[in-house]
Give the backbone structure.
Amino acid sequence: CNKDLDRTPTYDLSTDAVFKDAAGYRAVAAKAYSGFAVTGPNGPDASTGDILGIDQGTSDYVRQLWSAQELTTDEAVIQWGDPGVQDWHNMNWTSSGVLIQGLYSRILYEITLCNGFLAEATDDKLAARGITGTDLTDIKAFRAEVRFLRALAYYHAMDLYGNPPFAIETDPIGGTTPPKQTTRAALFTYLESELKAIDADLLAPSQSASQYGRANKAAAWTLLAKMYLNAQVYTGTARYADCLTYAAKVIDTGGYSLQTAATGKATAYARNFLTDNYASPEIIFPIVFDGKKTQTYGGTTFLTHAAVSGTSDANWNPAKYGIGGGWGGVRTTPKLYQQFADTASDTRGKFVTGGQTLDVVSQTNFNNGYVPIKFKNVSSAGAAGADATFVDTDYPMFRLADVYLMYAEAAVRTGTNLPQALAYVNLVRARAYKNTTAGNITAAALTTDFLLNERSRELYWEGTRRTDLIRYGRFTSGSYLWPWKGGVAAGTSVPDTRSLFPIPSSDLSVNPNLVQNPGY
Amino acid sequence: QAQTTGSVSGRVLDEKNTGIPGATVLVEGTSLGVSSDVDGSFRIANIPAGPQTIVLTFVGYNATRRPVTIVAGQNTTVSASLTVNATELGEAVVIGYGTQRRQDVTGAITTVTAKDFVQGQITNPEQLIQGKVAGVQITTAGGAPGGATTIRIRGGSSLNASNDPLIVIDGVPVDNSAVSGAANPLSLINPNDIETYTVLKDASATAIYGSRASNGVILITTKKGNVGDKLTVNLVSNTSLAARYNSVPVLSADEFRATVQAVAPQQAKLLGTGNTNWQNQIFRTAMTYDNNVSLAGAVGKLPFRASIGNLEQQGILKTDGLIRNTGSLSLNPVLLDNHLRVNLNVKGTWTDNNFGDTGAIGSALAFDPTQNVFSDNANYSNYFQYLQGNGTPQQNVPTNPVATLMLQRNRSTVKRSIGNVQLDYKLHFLPDLHANVNLGYDVTRATGTNLIDARSAGSYFNTPLDPANTTARGGSYNYYSQQRNNKLLETYLNYTKAFGETSRLELLAGYSYQDFVTTAPAYANYLGDATTVRTLAASNPFRTQYTIISYYGRANLTLNNRYIFTGTLRNDASSRFSPSNRNALFPAASFAWRIKDEAFLKDNSTFADLKLRLGYGVTGQQDVVAAAGSDYPYIQRYFLNVPTAQYQLGGIYYTPYSPLGFNSNLKWESTATYNAGLDFGFFNNRLTASADVYYRKTTDLLAVIPIPGEINYTNRLISNVGSLENKGVEFNLIGTAIQGERLNWTLNANATYNVNKILSLGPQAPDFQGIENTVVAGGVGTNIGNYSVGSPSSSFYAYQQVYGPDGKPIDGVYTDINGDGKIDSNDRRIYKQSAPKVLLGFGSNLSYNRVSLAFSLRANLGNYAYNNVNSNLGNYQGIVGSSNFVSNVVRDANNTGFLNSSQARYSSDYYIQNASFLRMDNATLGYNVGKVLNGKGSLRLSAAVQNVFVATKYTGLDPEIPNGVDNNVYPRPRTYTFGLNLSI
């Protein structure tokens, strides 16, 4: 009878049962991908998700990354009062903040998922499990992709928290030995080598639907370009030339092009943020959502709903966004609105202004702040998404316009390839100005300041603003202020140490290897 | 050589002709004597022939002398019914695996029998002893029929593992985990079938139940038939009317109009023209009919009891109700020349539930009172709803609470049967040795459907899974089912040996196997038309199983009837832990000294009884399911994502396998308990009292704590970490104030003081604030509780509100607790606790001739509640927060005046209020009609009021809240019951 004590789960599977064939490998690789999109294995309405101690919907990777990158800047304010949510904009987050902890845990969880997969996907184990032929090629590609996903998560950890704990697939999972802490510079070096090492196994860039959603070589090159553009911040050594190299690789050999065709219902620019943006030729790496099958209260569901008022009125019609009703919360400061000299001719500068004030006098008044119109749950033909709550639109983690602007900035900072840089910037400008030259700039206007503003115009609400402001030294300093920066209505400087988020006290408590970031 | 001796045998019976175990039977003037065995029978051999006197004594009963003539070589039969001498010291007390005389009990045990049960309409069995037992807190979640109940014995010993006691019904430890479609698994037992409750509180009493005993054990014994009883039909019929007696103080329609005009005149255009009291609209006066018939007695040598019960209970929330049909049968014959006792119990229950949507309770508070219930828009079944210009409902707006109730049909059918057959065989060659085998089962079948009408505004935007289907929309339909199959095998040997008149030894050794299986198939969700698929069924149905195998033993030694030693030992092995952590040994030892029987007190007339009890023991906790989410917390598992958590790559939707966090080192939590108690009897035991002090320390605490990043598939893991203590004092008092021919008055009182403190939560950084818990409604992610070292586990965690010179709270202004010059989340601090520090219970029963009047009072002191209703609605956000509707506020809004209040207010201690209370649970007037039907029957009538009054400073609806957060509480009604009890 004592054998009866060896009860094993009947429907949940053991490691060996999962990885018994290529389908199992793909299902776990899909888990590593879905870690950026969904919040837990039981769907959005379960009582708990992957990350504990935080509201499940809030714990979504994209939603948290977006909050840390956008709500901390002039591009977004939120009129909610959930614990910690105002801390982003007021820049008074603490190491015990639930959102600081939630984002950190989500990133580290993603890294662990990838490590777990990679530990089972070694050549030896693949051979031992009899995975051969096309299956083997495919799983090797997935293995490289999971390494990319891990690199992406580590990149976020490096950018946001600076010096995270560091573990790879050879470190055991399920033990009690806490990982060592790495440094920002060491992590940079590791990621650089890692992204180059997987180049051979990654899929070639492709516009084919049969590859959509998978991280290919161009995704790795884009990430390298991002790292090199910000290398001065991460390592103390500028690497703009390398940025140029990898941005050019994406542009020249990726086969991507800007979406320049408008439809009767959507501008060319807007088509990157609609339910059929999977067809956009400029999205290099998306996080894929689906209103029926990939549901979350984060991701583009959050980005769409949070920018729409809770109820319909003269100024708001949720049906225009393809949803039943919004959550009313995310607005912007006057700074973003003022980036657009002419919101009529620049098709990117679309705002809901009726019923809203331009100035953000209060952070609890839903009518304060204009609201950018970006993510929607409708197609470029105007058809609503499959579900009125969960949004179909994919989140463009990397897209070509960003690469053009990175190229331009690296060129200006190094004073090389300037005509090419101008041409790329004007490609972006022309698309924004309805494929005319009305918005084109001259070589003289191509300055770093112009590019920072242009990045905001082109890439607002796409999760790059905080990193951009830090690179320009304007995130914490008094040289650039916006309403409620530092918790003051007029804006104020904050200590430079706010350029990094603190290591959560919950992890410091249990991992004695960790040292808190300065200033916390 | 001719025999010169004979023997005598017989049974010692009580006034009901039930055998009295452990009675002393002596041959007067000799040293010959024995104790009666479990069924009261005895046999004394080697008695010199001739006239003798047999003396039968049992504590609590009047001694009886029977003259007999012993014939050499023959047996003489003597049986006697002893009469009660008004004290209960000698009654048999049910303990783990057997019974014991009360005088021999060494642990902290409280018994409540049917005559002391709470009266009135009792739906859940645990309510029978609410307020009756020191150290036991029983809190209903609210007034829902068959609603959930929280039972805490001497505070909770765990943080994240279960704090529920083990419940054993007629020897079957029952599965107390949640049943789909039944709010309270215990509500599946008919209270009318219950004879006694025995609450085992300290480790010396509970350790025999080992790994499930840390939070106490409740033994429930059901009613049985007796040998020699004539067949008696008993009819119990109760008819009750339940009515709400108070309301949450929201503004009336006219007050609301005036407030909107005063606060935000621009919003007045949103007001309607109606005058609706939404609380009156969703609640009703509810009727309950509870009828029970039992037939008990003996047919020849077969004692039996059979009963059927039918309960139809309406909830005071419209559409809410419970229908319960129960049947039970018990047979307890004694066979094989009194050597084999058979105990067969079968209980079956069939309940049909209709769940009213309790969300309507909260929305009734906030819904605009100037709107009418009905509109002329048939699209939404003629209920008023907020619509958009195009006629579709607005989302994220309040929905009409009456429509919420009426457009939903949430039903379940739950069937449960618990049964066992227990065979107790007294060995022919060694009658001191009993072999006991107990085979039991606990089986549940639950099914349910939840249909939300397609015309319901709140689910208007539900759409089909298939995007091509553009016509079907709205509503939802879910079907679920769950099966539980639990089985039990227990077997033990019991050896009893008397040494002379006053000393005896009892040894017990046993084995137990218990297996629990729960399965639940997966079903698709549909739209309100019940045919169009909304989401697919999960590919994996649910099945879980766990097994506990145990060995246990106990030794009881009574010396000179004065010194009683008990030792128990249990080894449990649970499938929930890895083989290396699976086994655990739980020892306990206790000692009782019957001081009264010492020479120096024997003739003392003040003390009728005086006993000292000392006990120590270790118990365990293995119920980690709630915290670990699984019966397999130590195994690395992969969970197949549900169909709404797929991921698309290259046009293919993959269903990911999610690796789950696991703790291969997980093991038992153990609680060491020290207990010291004194039992007193005064004035010939007209006043009995007991006092206990205890200290309980839980180590290897099962807690969900943060773990280092990157070492597991989770950020918080169930772990054995830290420690926790409970210490307290309990008093129990039972007295007969007046004892006469006509007038009788008995009183009982109990008091408990318990202090709970977390001693350690593992390693912590200096600025670590603790582990937040207890989410409040309204502020997403706001936790109001915190597990913090040095504080009670039920502590609140809040800002200190700053008040203006007018004494009113200032919106968003809090004290800089840590003095760092800024106010942030680190300025919250531990503040008060939700668990009561003191529990008081008081009961009185006064009778004069045929009339009786009984009442019971209960008080909790030192408990605070978080008034989530006020933190949500006690401000003008509802008036100014939307441009499309206004929602009602509670009166506290006129006190705070908070306008654009930030959500930091959810963490303000302003909303943490003293929730101490005194409640009269029950007052019952009884009239014993006496003989009816030409003397064939007897009839008793009663009229009872439940929830007579509540005295409290708490400003919310009801201060008694299980987890301390007052939100959406189903009001406990005042219930008037007319009862009839007819025996024929």
Remarks:
- The domain at 92-222 of chain B is CATH 2.170.130.10 (Ferric Hydroxamate Uptake Protein; Chain A, domain 1).
- Chain B touches chain A through 109 residues (CB under 8 Å).
